[in-house]
Each structure stands twice: as C-alpha cells, then as structure tokens.
Amino acid sequence: xxxxxGGQILVDQLKAHGVRRVFSVPGxxxxxxxxxLYESGIDNIVCRHEGGACMMAExxxxxxxxxxxxxxxxxxxxxxxxxxxHVARQDSTPLILFVGQIxxxxxxxxxxxxxxxxxxxxxxxxxAAEVDQTDRLPEYISRAFHLSQSGRPGPVVLxxxxxxxxxxxxxxxxxxxxxTPPSVCSxxxxxxxxxxxxxxxxxxxxxxxxxxxxxxxxxAQFAENFGLPVCATFRRMDRIDNRHPNYAGDLAVGxxxxxxxxxxxADCLLVLGSRLGDIVTGGYELVDPAAPGKTIIHVHPDxxxxxxxxxxxxxxxxxxxxxxAKLAKRDAPAHPDWADWTKAARADYLDWVTPRETPGAVKLxxxxxxxxxxxxxxxxxxxxxxxxxxxxxxxxxxRAFPGHLAPTSGSMGYGFPAAIAAKLEHPDRxxxxxxxxxxxxxxxxxxxxxxxxxxxIVVIVCNNxxxxxxxxxxxxxxxxxxxxxxxxxxxxAALARAYGGHGERVxxxxxxxxxxxxxxxxxxxxxxxxxxxxxxxxxGLTVAGAQAFAG
Length: 551
Hints:
It is built from 21 helices and 22 strands. By secondary structure, the chain is an alpha/beta fold. Helix 1 (6-16) packs across helix 2 (31-37) and helix 9 crosses helix 11 (320-327).
C-alpha cells in the first residue's frame, strides 16, 4: 500500500460510498480535501454561502435518498452552515457535514476561528465528532454514512483538523454501507391489513423522508386497491400525485378545516413514514396523545419514534417505502364500504384548491392554480418559508415524487438552493422555485452558483414588500401597529440580468403565463417577479380581516 494524505483518504472513501457530487465553500482549513477532490471525478459545486451549500446538499439527499455531502471551513463557515443542519435534522434527511478545523495541537487556546463542534452541533446533529488520527478516517467516515441513514435519518458532522488532513498514512479503504434487505414480513402486513379493514373511517397519512418515485406509485396503487383516502404531511405533498382521485390534501399549517375535521372523525390512522408531530395534529388538538379516540397504525424506520408521543395500536419499525411496496401488491380483503368517505375527502380537497380571490392586480392564487395545470408532467417545485407559501401549499397540485421540495423546519431561504440542487440532479426537468421577497433575499447570492453550473431554473419571486407572515401575526395581535416587517426590495428582474440571467416583472395576472414561458425557455437562470398587494396576507385573509380578527 502507498501512503496518502488525509484529504485523499477522505475523498477515496467518498468514492467508495458512491458520492457523485459535493457542495462546498472553500477554506484554507481543508486544502488537503480540495486537493483530494482534484481529478477525483466527484463534482464539487462551489457555492457563495455555507448556509446555501448545506441546503443544496440537504435537497440533493432528499432527491436521491443518499447522504448529501458538504464541505465548509472552520468558525463562521461552520456556524453559517448550521442552518442547513437544522433543516436536515427536522426533515430527517441524511447529510454529512465536513468542517475544516484548526491544527489540533492548538486546541483549547481559543485559536483563530476555533469552535468545539461536538458541543456546538450536539443539539441538532445525530452525531458530531472530530478526527484526530489520519489512519482512522475510513472508520469515522464509515460510521458517519451508517449513522446518517440508520433509523430516523439525519445530519452528522465531522471536524477535520488541518494537520490531520495533510498528514500521510498507509490505511486501507473500507467498503460502503451494506444494503439492508426489506424488513417487513407477511405476518406484519397481515396485522396492518386486518386492523385497517376493521375501520369504518380510515385515513392514510404519508410523509417522512427517503421517498422514491416507486414509493409514490406504490402508495397510489395501494390507495386504489383498498379505496382509501390519502393525505400528506406538511411539505411532503409529493408522496402521491395530488391529481390522484384518492388524494385528500395536506395536514399542514393553515390546513383545510374540512380535512382537520376528517382527521378528528377518522377511527383509524395509518401513518406511513411520518412522525405524528404538532403540525400534523394541529397542535395535538386534532388527535390528543392522552386520548386519541382512534386506532393508530404507525410505520416508522426508527423504533424509538414509535410510542414516543402517541401510543400506536400497531407499530412497525420499518422504512415506509418497504411497507408500501408490499402493500401495493395486495388485493383488499372484505372491509366496510369506504367509497363515500373517500369521495367526500376528495371533494373537500377540490373545493379547497378552487381559488378564493385576494386583493391586487396580481392574484397569487390564480397564478399558482394556473401554473399547476401548465407545469410539465415531471416538473419539480421548491420553496422556502413565508406568507407566499400558504398560497403555494393550498393551490399547488404537486406531481408525484420528486415533485416538491420544501423544508418542514420552516426555514426561509431554502427554496432557491434546493432548486439549484434539483436542476443539477435532473437537468432535463423544469425546476421552479417559489420565494417571497424576504425568503429570496436570504440566499439570492446563489444566482452566481446557478449561473456558473448551468442550473437554469425559474424563480418566481412573490414581492409584497414585507415579511408577510410576521405582518399577518402582527395585525392579529397588535393591529395597525406595523413594526419591523417592512422591506426595501431591489429590481429583481434587473438583478437576474446582472448575473447573466433572464428577468421578468409581472404586474397583472394575465401577464404571468407568457412571462413564465419566456423564462422557462430562456436557457439561463430566470427570475419572474410578481408585484403583489401587501394587503393580501394569506389565502382568504387581508390586513383588514386580520385586524377584525384581533378585534
């Protein structure tokens, strides 16, 4: 064997694990790793901010089911990246963050940009460690890949002292994580089926991480075979094509009141892959952990999640995709007639996505409703967080996986980096990012990254000149006392052109679709700015309405 420096050992391990693309902001603390990436065949997408880089890696993991990989430098580089680590934690996304670290011989002297990463990342990562011995790099990296994907997936952080990375060692590579065979047996599926078929008002709830197009198709087939209504959890709308006749909507912030009531009325919940958290359960009011009043069948990959908040009547510690694949092949046995229940759920959804008019010359509800009909079959839509997202989640009819990428953590700025990652992974698909003016300004510097790597996405900027969600809550709580929520905005179309992209400004609803088509055909990253009325706070709510609510 020949000696290699730590950076080369690291990169060779990434290659062994099948890593094709990493995201980074370069730093002198990991020069050896950058050297290892040279001529490695691994694409290194160099970003403009560590938060954007980490969010791109997180979105890449959502799309592929494989851990996203990101490199950042010490101190401010790592702390900037922590926003993406938080997304990965709350969204249960496998991710590995490599942080260049100070020379370990200077530890505990408050050296330049020194941070104790074990302590800093402990609350938001599955594991945070520092590698002090070059010859142990394969061991640490193998553990990182295992942990990021085991049970409930999540982020792992490895700090890499620069003297360790530059040192040489003679050490063999370790093979990649071994594949895990499907973990459910026929007796477990029989138990799910038997309990489900005793219900008179069942509801399937699909969510969680690590999904696939096969899982989305399997869920649709299972729903058809059994005649079941299916709803998605918050920002997991693409678990099934929203145009499917069994789709009943999403259990999200501002959910359809009729869907909320349906969840109360259901006598059996089949939960596939998702945690039963506060958003899904309407702040634990739709389903009370102390007295659910319904049968709960919970399928989740992490055995520690089963029974954590809700006691399941049947709990399966297994990946939802495995359970769905097998359930989809089954014919439904005798069960109560669910046809009217399922049709009513679908009718409630179709009524909910029928646009309700809001003020202004550009009607966001009409834009999104029209775009849903106009999008290519394999389009991917991304978004971050903000007032505009309430319109998007209500009126967008997402395609099946990977039709929609968004952060369940509610992180602003996510949609644009996620769209870049999606376009790099699927260059032949239309990728559309929705962003508010506040949301977009948090990561719009990644326009430079999109331009550099040919990620020709379309960003639809919903410009209402304010932090709209906060303004909405402000008007409800302190009506008429606007404080800290107004914004100055650039000319977004001109900004896009300054980056070598395409820019459009839309001031009337009827002008949107032609502008969007021009942006989609531009062959460069494009921005379509929608000039919105600031009084339209959310679907069905205006400033006046919020003030009346407060009164």
